[in-house]
Design goal:
alpha+beta, Aminopeptidase, 3-stranded antiparallel β-sheet
Length: 132
Amino acid sequence: MRYWDSPPHQSPEDTQPMFDSLTRPGARQYFVWDLAGEVIGVGGVHSGDELGFLLHPDHWGKGLAFEGARAVIGHFWTVSPSPRLTAEADPCNRASVGLLTRLGFQVTGFRRDALCVAGHWSDSVYMALERP
């Protein structure tokens, strides 16, 4: 959670309320990602059209976030008339920016010092994926 909009959580118990709010039925279009019955992350759409995802570090680099995000995008196009999906990431988060790029997102903007978390300012890169 180094690039999240809050300081890193100290325990799974700290993460649980956020996880519950993202996956509560009807709250948002978020889905639990599991692998062989083990929860490994979440992904979905919030704020109307913004794609978000969170994957446990044990599963990074295996293509699972790509697979999950691609399924979320397909679902979004099916249930929403929105002409685009958006995303925001810290440009230092090369894995997320790379994932979004592989998914077809294009950079639409950049903001320096966009967010301050625990006294540390970070930039943001804004991206969009047009409806096919």
